[in-house]
Specification:
Blueprint: H1 22-31, E1 38-42, H2 48-59, E2 63-67, E3 70-74, E4 82-83, H3 86-89, H4 96-104, E5 107-111, H5 124-132, E6 136-139, E7 143-147, E8 155-157, H6 163-173, E9 179-183, H7 191-194, E10 200-204, E11 210-215, E12 227-228, E13 234-235, E14 237-238
Parallel strand pairs: 4-5, 8-9
Antiparallel strand pairs: 1-3, 1-14, 2-3, 5-7, 6-7, 9-11, 10-11, 12-13
């Protein structure tokens, strides 16, 4: 269909169920890696990218369950640090697991992510920002390895605002030593962290460059309550976690 023609003049009425947002649930699934317990995410869409992410989480040792629109992730036992294959190369959002894996186990080897093509969308900004936090990156033809003996808080000034890069820095920074300041951060990213106890604050400078400050705190609080996420869609995220 090349065009959609709409003839107005009639009032709209009725009810419909709004499906959970892909752009909301994928970074939340990545954030679940930081929790050494069981996370439950409700109103989760049943789409291919979610299935790819579940396969990646299963491959590194998570126990997952997807029944209806309820998703359960048990990340207590991470046994692998390598991610490859179609689940990585076929999905752009697989790059979000980079920051989460560095925050959780300090090392990850993964193929270069694929997915939708909007321009070239390189991952250079992700790698440069993580290098600023003390991560060593070893690049090969079809994959790369990222290692960090200790993630360190620092000041990162992004050349332009990026949701994906902001997500990766957040997931690494909440487990880093000290304070991380991210300038030109995406403002609509991962409220599950910003609204929880991750020690994240945001402010808009006079220069209109959004500044995010992240302190290392226990991330177990992130999933303790129902949290409204992304564009008014409600995802219920629950679990029993120690403070």
């Amino acid at each position: 269909m090349d065009t959609i023609r709409i003839r107005g003049g009639n009032a709209l009425f009725g009810e419909t169920r709004i499906q959970g947002s892909k752009n909301a649930v994928l970074p939340v699934m990545a954030a679940a890696l930081l929790i050494k317990d069981v996370c439950t995410i409700e109103n989760c869409p049943r789409i291919s990218d979610v299935h790819h992410m579940l396969a990646l989480l299963t491959g590194i040792g998570c126990r997952v369950s997807h029944r209806g629109h309820t998703l359960t992730i048990d990340a207590r036992n991470i046994s692998e640090d390598t991610m490859s294959g179609e689940n990585v190369t076929g999905m752009r959002s697989s790059i979000t697991l980079l920051g989460a894996m560095l925050g959780r186990v300090g090392e990850v080897t993964m193929a270069y992510p694929g997915g939708c093509v909007i321009g070239e969308r390189p991952i250079d900004m992700h790698l440069h920002a993580l290098r600023r936090m003390g991560v060593a990156i070893y690049e090969k033809e079809n994959c790369f390895t990222a290692k960090a003996k200790s993630l360190e808080g620092t000041v990162i000034n992004l050349p332009f605002s990026s949701v994906g890069v902001t997500e990766n820095i957040l997931l690494a920074a909440v487990m880093a030593k000290g304070v991380t300041v991210l300038q030109n951060a995406a403002v609509d990213v991962l409220p599950v962290l910003v609204g929880g106890a991750a020690g994240i604050t945001m402010r808009n400078r006079m220069t209109m460059r959004n500044c995010m400050t992240v302190c290392n705190r226990n991330p177990s609080f992130f999933f303790r309550n129902k949290i409204p996420l992304f564009n008014g869609l409600l995802h219920s995220i629950s679990g029993s976690f120690p403070m």
